[in-house]
Specification:
Layout: E1 4-12, E2 17-25, H1 27-33, H2 36-39, E3 53-55, H3 69-84, E4 95-99, H4 101-104, H5 108-125, H6 133-136, E5 137-139, H7 142-157, E6 176-180, E7 184-189, H8 193-198, E8 204-209, E9 215-226, H9 230-244, E10 249-252, E11 260-263, H10 277-283, E12 286-290, H11 294-301, E13 333-337, H12 338-344, H13 358-369, H14 373-381, H15 391-412, E14 445-447, E15 450-451, E16 454-455, H16 458-469, E17 482-485, H17 511-517, H18 522-540, H19 542-557, H20 573-579, H21 596-601, H22 640-644, H23 655-664, H24 672-676, H25 685-692
Parallel strand pairs: 1-4, 4-5, 6-13, 10-12, 13-14
Antiparallel strand pairs: 1-2, 2-3, 6-7, 7-9, 8-9, 8-17, 11-12, 15-16
């Protein structure tokens, strides 16, 4: 067992799949090397930019051809992971494929078939730990994605390990998390004490474990807004424009002046550079004409928040969805994905440490969007806004910026830094020029991409939870690591384990992976064993084969005599073929007992079982040879005793087994003396002679003992 533990997470999104590789020290080694402060911290997770790889498109595109997802998609990602992880550590490395928005919209049957192909391909082509497909390969809901993101953000910011250094007041030390993609948006935060007590049933209970086994427990609110990602919001906005006017030309304040774009009735913008222009004109139902009026764009995108929807469980923020009241005095949010790209990649030219200031940000967006399209094109060529800004991003940024501003300030209620005065805060009018890290992320909102050079990704949160679950608990009564409904005590019914429940260490040979995780390899394994035995028998030669045959015959005939102990049962066909014996009859030794001295010299082979024989010689019990090393992680429902009672594929029939089989047929063997007395040693001459004349005796097998 090496120094490091590894983990692989495949983030299967709508546009592509990205593989993330992480590693952390084995707990025993981490404890040995840790300082007092580190012992009370979560496991240290490491990653590298070179350990990440993304390919397009997403696995949801294989819905109609699921059998292609392995060779045409996963193969590249798994090959990349295998190059970065030491070969000897691969069988100990868990593999997860967690799909998000793209797979959620697939028909159920297609979704199941794609996920099954993913698991089958990974199992058949790699040795990664993948014992339970339902747990390791699945489509996760938006709430789970948001919770993993919350774990990652607080892990990197230090909110878990050193709460005293992140005291935001009122006993609060964690940060809120905001994420926005193309289809959905998520929010996750720990409410203040008052709100947590009011809405206890709406919270998720999360348990972690530090290196020394100390449990950490948090109560987090998480929700997702489907259809509130930037791309879905854009489609809803265009549909509202089409429905509000019968004209084919629609003025759009969210496009730069003089820029036009054709759109479909579903609100999708058609690519003007496509070769299929005639086909596009047939699909297009209207044409957008940019006016470049950002203030009007803000006003027209505000209704997309749907704040007018009925709130059945107060309080609500947007879309009529319940969210506990947010105390921005103690809840400081970090925003990732679109919150980062739209606020920094253009208007801050990718400067990673710039703080967010609403006043300055809105001024810069207004300045950009009021330009005509030709001026923007010239700026793109000169890389005025950085090399990452192309024409596609420039077309979309005005709408995205307006949507981000509406979501943050009118939707979620984040105070407008630079305009609205904050309690107990310094003058932040020029906050955009300050270093966010130096400010301690204490503003109500800060967009981030990396913290301490590590990307804030929900996949990191998944691996932090998994590594934490591997820390041995301080006692048998300790509650498991994972998350579920907020219940007063115990483990809720919907509790989700990071990787299942650990199975006991069984042996140094990982047979469990062969028989349980990769059952397709069993036939090939036994064929290989047969070939090895066959070749070995040929190498032995005739005389040694005969000797080996005799020894094996004793093993298989011990305890299986017929009525006459001199008449052995017939050897097995396979042993006879392999070792050169006859399968048609038994060769016996001829014993001439004409004189008493020969009879006295004759000793019959003992047929009873020696009580000193070890039963484990022929079994795979825990005291004999044992199967498996680390069986990995089973499903949360798996029980240890069930795993231990796995079928034993290597155990041969023991002597006791054969005795019991004979007893079931009324043929239980007895001691030679109990059955026939002294006659078993000095058989009558008449019986010997009668056997000598038996037609079943082969002449070639006759021999005289006295010779």
């Amino acid at each position: 067992m090496g120094k490091w533990r590894y983990g692989v997470v495949l983030d299967a999104g709508s546009s592509g799949t990205r593989v993330h590789i992480y590693r952390w020290l084995h707990n025993a080694k981490a404890r040995k090397q840790a300082t007092d402060v580190q012992l009370h911290s979560l496991p240290v997770i490491e990653t590298d930019k070179k350990w990440t790889k993304k390919i397009h498109p997403g696995i949801s595109t294989f819905g109609e051809h699921p059998h292609l997802v392995g060779p045409e998609h996963l193969d590249k990602l798994l090959s990349h992971a295998l190059k970065k992880i030491p070969l000897e550590e691969v069988p100990n490395t868990p593999l997860f494929l967690l799909a998000t928005a793209g797979m959620r919209i697939l028909p159920e049957q297609q979704r199941k078939e794609v996920l099954k192909e993913v698991c089958d391909f990974a199992r058949s082509t790699t040795q990664f730990q993948l014992p339970d497909c339902q747990l390791h390969v699945q489509v996760i809901p938006g709430e789970t994605e948001g919770l993993y993101g919350w774990i990652a953000a607080n892990y990197l910011l230090g909110g878990f390990d050193q709460p005293k250094h992140h005291d935001h007041g009122k006993g609060h030390s964690t940060y809120g998390f905001l994420d926005m993609g193309g289809a959905s948006a998520q929010i996750a935060f720990a409410p203040n004490t008052t709100e947590a007590e009011k809405h206890a049933n709406d919270l998720t209970l999360l348990r972690l474990r530090t290196i020394d086994g100390t449990p950490l427990e948090y109560k987090v609110f998480v929700t997702t807004w489907l259809g509130f990602g930037v791309n879905q919001a854009r489609q809803r906005y265009i549909k509202s424009l089409i429905e509000s006017s019968a004209s084919k030309e629609l003025p759009d304040p969210c496009l730069p002046a003089d820029l036009t774009a054709q759109v479909t009735k579903d609100g999708k913008i058609l690519d003007s550079d496509s070769d299929d222009e005639d086909g596009q004109k047939e699909k297009a139902v209207a044409e957008l004409v940019g006016t470049g009026k950002f203030a009007e764009c803000l006003r027209q995108t505000y209704p997309l928040l749907e704040k007018e929807k009925e709130c059945t469980d107060s309080p609500c923020l947007i879309n009529g969805q319940h969210v506990p009241a947010i105390d921005f005095d103690v809840n400081h949010f970090v925003g990732v994905s679109e919150y980062w790209h739209t606020t920094h990649e253009i208007f801050e030219m990718g400067h990673k440490d710039k703080a967010y200031d609403f006043k300055t940000y809105q001024e810069r967006v207004d300045e950009f969007c009021s330009q005509d399209w030709k001026s923007i094109e010239k700026g793109i060529k000169k890389e005025k806004w950085g090399h990452k800004v192309d024409e596609d991003k420039a077309r979309e940024v005005c709408f995205k910026a307006s949507w981000i501003i509406n979501m943050l300030h009118d939707g979620i209620g984040v105070p407008r830094v630079g305009i609205e005065e904050l309690k107990g805060s310094k003058n932040t009018t020029k906050a955009v020029l300050d270093n966010a890290k130096a400010k301690g992320f204490l503003d109500p909102f800060q967009a981030v991409n990396k913290i301490n050079d590590v990307e804030v990704s929900w996949t990191l949160g998944k691996m932090v939870l998994y590594a934490s679950s591997e820390v041995p608990p301080p006692s048998d009564q300790a509650l498991a690591v994972g998350f579920g409904s907020n219940v007063p005590s115990g483990i809720p019914a919907n509790f989700q384990y990071p990787g299942g429940t650990p199975l006991p260490l069984e042996s140094d040979n990982d047979w469990h992976r062969l028989f349980i995780e990769n059952p397709r390899r069993i036939p090939g394994f036994f064929i290989m064993i047969f070939i090895i035995i066959f070749i070995f028998c040929i190498i032995l030669g005739k005389e040694k084969r005969a000797s080996a045959r005799k020894s094996i015959s004793k093993l298989f005939t011990r305890g299986r005599q017929g009525k006459d102990p001199l008449h052995r049962r017939r050897r097995g066909f396979l042993a006879g073929k392999l070792f050169g014996g006859s399968s048609s009859g038994q060769a016996y030794e001829r014993v001439d007992l004409e004189d008493g001295e020969a009879a006295n010299d004759f000793e019959l082979e003992e047929t009873y079982l020696d009580s000193s024989d070890n039963d484990n010689d022929f079994s795979d019990s825990s005291d004999g040879s044992r199967m498996g090393r680390t069986s990995g992680w089973a499903t949360p429902q798996a029980k240890k005793d069930t795993a231990v009672a796995a079928p034993n594929y290597f155990s041969g029939a023991t002597a006791n087994d054969l005795v019991s089989q004979g007893a079931g047929l009324g043929l239980a063997p007895q001691s030679a003396f109990d059955r026939m007395g002294l006659l078993s040693r000095t058989d009558s001459r008449e019986r010997i002679r009668s056997r000598a004349s038996s037609p079943k005796r082969g002449k070639g097998g006759m021999s005289k003992l006295d010779e």
